[in-house]
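Response to reviewer comment R2.3. The reviewers asked that we include at least one raw input/output pair. We reproduce the pair for Cytochrome c here without editing.
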Amino acid sequence: MKKLALALSVLACISLPAMAEGNAEAGKTKAIVCSACHGVDGNSMIDMYPKLAGQQATYLIKQLHDFRSAAKTGGKEGRNDPIMGGMALMLSDQDIEDVAAYYSSQTKIVVEVKDIPALGEQLYKGGDMTRGITACIACHGPEGAGVELAGFPAIGGQHANYLKIQLNKFSDTNRNNDLNGMMQDIAKKLTSDDIEALSSYISSLK
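Raw output as returned:
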């Protein structure tokens, strides 16, 4: 909770950051190589890979830079991923901005989710103060749209399986490129049932 408050206080004090100046049309061509996993328009059909359509350009840029950084440092910096690290190494800074501009301009397709566990909605909207779990809505909003200026990504309508994979990675610190370690702090307090329920609920958000 303290880390969340710090992040929001910093956000309140800063001016608008320089926005990415990517070219979406150029990005469409450059993103062809990404389509095998993420879909032509960023709507991945494989649930272990994220939907990139409609994601904030600044968040996509950060992740690609983090993937590239990890690949260059043997995982000592950034976000380590053997597949994405290799892909990001081939991209220039302009390529990254163009690809991010393209995917952010696309429309995410949200598949209707049935039998959503009540626990998922409860944790997303209210957290669990007895366990020190902050409500997801505080950073990601009621519809999972996130807050671009704060670096909180859009997660609503994302594949449940991908969300589950990432929450588990944050929990065991295999992913540690989150702001002030906030996601790691929260995820490590979640049980496997919590993660399953949250992933299902978040994937239903439109």
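Residues 8-18 have pLDDT under 50 and may be disordered. The CA atoms of residues 6 and 175 lie 21 Å apart. Further pairs are available on request from the corresponding author.
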